[in-house]
User: Fold these one by one.
Assistant:
Number 1:
Amino acid sequence: MTAQEVRLCGLLLHEHFGEVVEKVGTHLLRSGAQNLRTIIHETGLSVDLVKKSLMVLVQHGACLFSSGRKGPGSPTEYRSGCDRILRILRYPRYIYTAKTLYGDTGELVVEELLQRGHMTMSGTVKTVADRLTQNMEEGRSMDYSEVSSAFSKLVETHFLQRCPKLAGAGTADSTSPAAGATPAAPGTPAAPASAIPPTPESFPDCYKVPHMTLVGRGKRQLAAEDGEDQRNAKRQKMDSEAHGDEGIYWQVNFERFHLHFRDQAIISAVANKLDQTSSEIVRTMLRMSEVTTSPAATCTKPLSANEIFRSLPASYNIPRPILDQYLTLLVDDPMEFVGKAGESGGGMYVVNLHRALANLARATLESVVQERFGSRSARIFRLLLRKRHLEQKQVEDFAMIPAKEAKDMLYTLLSQNLVQLQEIPKTPDYAPSRTFYLYTVNQLPTARMLLQNCYKTVANLIERRLFESKESKRLLEKSQRIEAILASLQASGAEPEQLTEVEEMITAPEKQQLDALKLHINKLDSAENQVDETIFLLESYVNSTATSTG
Amino acid sequence: MAARGRSRRTLSFSVDSVGINRGESLPPTLQQPTPVFPVMEQKPLPLTGGEEAEYLLALKQDFRGAMRSLPCFIQPAAALRDVERYSDKYHSSEHTDGLMDWTPDWQRFPRELRIHARKPARDGVSVARSDAQSAQKKKKKKVREKEEVLIKLETLQKKEEQQSEEDDDDDNTEQKKKQEDDDADGDEEYDEEEFEEETDYIMSYFDNGEDFGGDSDDNMDEAIY
């Protein structure tokens, strides 16, 4: 929970949930687990606002609650983590992936779930069907069953999962149904006051689609009603009909998306380094081991060359000996994406997931140094990565750079903390004339440092975007109002002269200003998305080392 | 650091191994913090464009916009400005159509987070409802109040000649009727006597001087101030 992470989380909460939730959220992030009274007292907000914000945070999974530390009688404590809030940066990527895999229906399902946090299947299906119907032509509407099947497919491939049952929530589960349980009462007897909240995967029903009776088609919203009637009409439509899946809430399974992104990164890296056919082979191998590999595995299960040959897509008609050659090439490649694990079955091959992530992170670090300091500094950096420890003189010799410039570059890298100095004493008194000073690069700490830099970068981008919009707030409001007037005029059928007259209310220099503003904001937003890709890579690398060592 | 060596110009580490040769000057020492926006030697690369990047951008901006209109976007009660402005009438109706307040499944939340819809406090702020709805109710209440004030004035004018008790009774019954009408619409009860102009003071506190000197004429022992 570094300062940069907290700052970025605060900005993300502000943009998506408002400033009240931001205050409560950042307070929780900074102070750890707290109960309700302390939060109210320390944030200085009103009781109801704090309660509402906590509910929003819990609904979206950003905050967990559990019974207090002092035992069953103490008030519930709420704690929040940075990771879940930082995922908000990646939402567009999740939605886009769902679109590529499952079409528009899948895209909308994932988008609805991301917007609402937790939802029942019936609720999601209805809302998505309505939205799809809205965009279709007159007279056509989307059937609920299509949306349900898209939902089920997402669940089968583990992209969606059930929300875990929360111990210590409103009423107890199976023990005392009518006990009027206080929030601190222990829930299921199977979880003996565990401090760790249950993960969704610890429940056997995690990926089971409930039997749901939901028949109908999406409803198109009629645009002619005014606000009051529309609200009443909506209220009537949404009255609760039991669909057989009450109490079962679904959420997006971010880990599964991350595995998908990781696989995509490996495949595209192979495609860039070698060629299209090798990337297809690696894609086949990854696809075959999708279900057999656990998320934290170092490498996939060994696959024999025969199996790979049989599972290659039909369009790739490569003969068997060529496949063997490709596999040998992949194994010999210094990036070590594919390794050989035995000789049976024509050769057993694995995809080295963690090593691939480490190499991708290393490539990222090298490219950062190259873009920031130049190609010669990058050469020194790569040299130090490869040779681990080198003296000043050796650096100059190996990198083939004149002494003065090499020294300068080394010191710049040292001052930016990308290179560290290691002292090896010859005598126990560390006398400077009798000590070796070696330059070294440690990949993991450097990756962490760059990850923090990325968080800071995204926070700066967001702040700059907010600053730009605030500067031109008046202009933006004016343009919004004019758009609204234009829309209403067009809806009521006005003549073109009236439309042009309204359009001319924005003068030409104002229009230029608006266009420039739009361009800047789009650039900043796009930059956020790109930095998030780097964040994903570095985060995966750091997490993979944590699981393998810890 | 340099003063340790007894006026000899030596540094704590050996100059050879780190690479500073004799006769070369060290770079000048910094006297102030580094500039906030240092000059970049290398220009950064341009952003990757392309269809995917644009689609992701559109998704991101749509998502942000959609979140603003959902009930989970909590805005605090807007601070009352110093002077009532004409545009307040238009601004207050902007945020009224967030999809109706979501009713959470209370099984999944701790009991203590439950907000009970209480009867609104005297100053008309209802706790569990959105600000827009309370603003609408306030407006309706103001309109109703003004109508009632007018009606009350009319009835008072009509019944000025009659006795004061009868006047009070009639007013009270009419007040009760009006109150019942009001209560049918909203669950607010307000005491008209206390609430005439939305001040915090009970109206009977302000003595408009009619009674002064009217009673206690009998007792002439006390001086009248």
Note: The mean pLDDT of chain B is 65.
Number 2:
Amino acid sequence: MADIRSVFAGIKSPNPFWLASAPPTDKAYNVERAYKAGWGGVVWKTLGEDGPPVVNVNGPRYGAIWGADRRLLGLNNIELITDRDLHLNLREIKQVKKNWPDRALVVSLMVPCEEQAWKAILPLVEETGADGVELNFGCPHGMSERGMGSAVGQVPDYVEMVVRWCKQTTRMPVITKLTPNITDIRQPARAAHRAGSDAVSLINTINSITGVNLDTFAPEPTIDGKGSHGGFCGPAVKPIALHMVSEIARDPETAGLPISGIGGITTWRDAAEFLALGAGNLQVCTAAMTYGFKVVQEMIEGLQNWMDAKGHASLDDVIGRAAPNLREWQHLNLNYVAKARIDQDMCIKCGRCHIACEDTSHQAITAMVDGKRHFEVMEEECVGCNLCVNVCPVDGCIDMVPLAAGTLDKRTGATVSADYANWTTHPNNPMAAAAK
Amino acid sequence: MADGLYADGIAAGRLPGEDYEKNFADLHPPLDGHEARVEADRCYFCYDAPCMTACPTSIDIPMFIRQIATGNALGSAKTIFDQNILGGMCARVCPTETLCEEACVREEAEGKPVQIGRLQRFATDAAMQAQRQFYQRGAASGKTVAIVGAGPAGLACAHRLAMHGHAVTIYEAREKSGGLNEFGIAAYKTPDGFAQAEVYYVTAIGGITIERGKALGRDIALAELARAHDAVFLGMGLAGVNALRAEGEDVDGVENAVDYIAMLRQADDLGRLPIGRRVVVIGGGMTAIDAAVQARLLGAEEVTICYRRGQEQMNASQFEQDLAASKGVAIRHWLQPKRVIAENGRVTGIELEYTVLSNGRLAGTGETLTLKADQVFKAIGQSFDAAGLNGSGAAVALTGGRIQVDGEGRTSMPKVWAGGDCIAGGDDLTVSAVAQGRDGAESIHRALAG
Ligand SMILES: Cc1cc2nc3c(=O)[nH]c(=O)nc-3n(C[C@H](O)[C@H](O)[C@H](O)COP(=O)(O)OP(=O)(O)OC[C@H]3O[C@@H](n4cnc5c(N)ncnc54)[C@H](O)[C@@H]3O)c2cc1C
Ligand SMILES: Cc1cc2nc3c(=O)[nH]c(=O)nc-3n(C[C@H](O)[C@H](O)[C@H](O)COP(=O)(O)O)c2cc1C
Ligand code: SF4
Ligand code: SF4
Ligand code: SF4
């Protein structure tokens, strides 16, 4: 059985699955249930500075988008950081860590962007015996209006400054949680790295409005006829999160910086993909909020099963394995030619591939042959774009078949070359380097 | 005299050769990968899932379905086998419409439950086809356990005991293992030799010896087994058949449905298996339906089930009744057998009396009806044959003719446990036999360890 024990930024956990800082980690009751269900670690719901806690709205905090069968695809929230007393939280953290020494317990923090505020809270957390802190520079709503959360995360200089204060003050590992509401995710990651952050975690939620009530003209979720933008998470954000994780993983300036992958992780497969693109561990929020803590069993077991089947003995055999295969567009092989091929036995003749190609692409799929409804790829027109594969309702019915070197590409009339050649050397590129 | 379909009396080869294969093909063909994903996607991953509560072996249904949805069919199979090592057979034979699928919240929501049985088959097939074994024999405990009967109860018990490291010997009266999985279940529910493949899969864990052709009471005695082993588990099923109590039932052509089905299940060539042109089946349970449906599939022209009570009282589920109707079986209610009519020692018809319920008691009205029949199948229930317990019969107490057990499957005799159809208070289902075999093994293990 594959060994999925994890050490992330020096923090040990029996598996790489942590609950992200959010309602599932808001108090001892939830966290202990999560540990019982098998979660390897948690990042405690973000704590704020000492004093009267923040308040939440007393109406809907969440909005959502669904698939046709009400499968939850994306969740949006306007919740703030913890609304419970700081010292109550700290007492619980201490007790929970004592009860569960083998699990990771990291404490998320968000206090005003002042040195004193950060330096005041860190010793209090240290005293609980927690394994580390996560700096919440991500929250895109509510707290950001008060100059915290993403308001800090969007300014790399602030990120660097706060991380520096924290590193000066505490011996605990510091994880910097990044907001995706930024153009180039590498900038805040580099800033955190420069300041000595032990790791970064991403993504926090994405600014969003999930819908508008067309009777009341109020955005959802609606509080007394008004709405506010919220933070979007869940399965729908996974592609964005994967991209951001990979950007940092392959950035030479942050090489070796551990990344905690977050955003839409719902199954073992999602988790494996994050690991492959360079995440050192995983954090989950929406999947737990949708299905309960038991989902982690599927993730653990599925990940192990896949690793066993592929002969990966430990997480290190997986982490970052796909990162080197991620390249800039200009380095993709332009001599690679693939053509769509429809398996006529599997085709149910819905015509979606044809109309997608005919109306919106390259007119490369027939609709009628010899007076019969028949869908077949015309190789002389097919550019190999993959649209038909993506719209076909039948799994595996359309294949993208690479042309072997030496065969004729009927569309261009050229013979497929075995050599690798990319845009940087292409004759149409005005900046092309002279062929050697 | 006409041949083939219209041959009078009891005759073989009523159908063209290829029809047999078609008729006895899989009742619920397996889902392909795409179908399984689409179906799995319908599951809500319910909390404290009602389907799971309804399953006698408490399989973690939401989890195994989620594992199918995430492309982890082998992991899914393990989730199933953790609770039910005969999950492959149960996927085929469980009356899901009265178990998990009846409880599924989507049955409540839209009258269309998640097809749990077929998904279970998808996962278990994947593991069995890959010959993937998930369990290892436990470190040898030095204890030995004797099991009587290699049916679902005995096999499930043996597997769990082997996991705990106990050495198991199963004594099986027949020459073939599997119990009713091999000899009773309708052929179209478990085609292609699945029952034997499953026996092989279950016993591949090691540490299980099956002694075939060894019957308790004939070749071995219970007292002796209890002396020679640390524990004994009785999973003997129901070897007896209830009598019709109709006048003249001892003539040719009046047969026990279970015996006929056993013959059918063992036939190499169904075309050579004789069946009546006009068949009457007496009974209202699963066996009656199976006998009637298979009679039709063998080419019987007229098949009538006669049940002495109403439709609501039938033990066969609505699904089973609809299946019979779809195969052209007529089901008649409120009729009880009175007299078998015979000529030259062969049945030619059966006289039945109409019945009514009066003050909660079933009574004949005196009015009768006669149906022509070349063959009459008795499917009015099996009974436990206690003769095999002889020598120590006094020590094993019975209730209502079956073995009395406590909540852990212990009989009244020290060191002896029992489970499956042979115990009192059961519901005569494969899946319940598996649950009782498994739980009996756990109880035995606790006793041996303690
Ligand atoms: C025709 C028919 C159809 C059925 N269809 C279904 C169905 O579709 N779905 C479902 O869930 N259930 C069905 N059932 C019920 C199901 O088959 C039983 O509940 C289940 O097989 C019980 O398992 P068991 O291990 O207790 O007994 P059995 O399967 O009866 O196994 C008992 C074993 O013990 C052996 N044995 C008996 N006496 C002795 C002895 N003295 N010494 C040694 N060995 C002995 C027998 O040979 C047999 O192998 C059906 C039953 C019948 C009769
Ligand atoms: C209701 C809710 C509250 C959240 N609160 C916090 C928070 O207090 N601190 C924080 O760092 N992230 C918070 N998040 C963001 C999550 O930790 C996580 O980064 C995000 O939901 C993406 O992961 P997911 O797709 O698995 O949900 C919250 C998310 C939700 C849904
Ligand atoms: S999820 Fe619980 S707290 Fe939230 S609205 Fe529903 S019942 Fe109330
Ligand atoms: S979309 Fe797929 S199924 Fe539909 S016609 Fe095209 S190939 Fe056939
Ligand atoms: S009751 Fe139905 S929907 Fe709910 S977990 Fe069971 S199979 Fe899935």
Note: Chain B is about 35% helix and 20% strand.
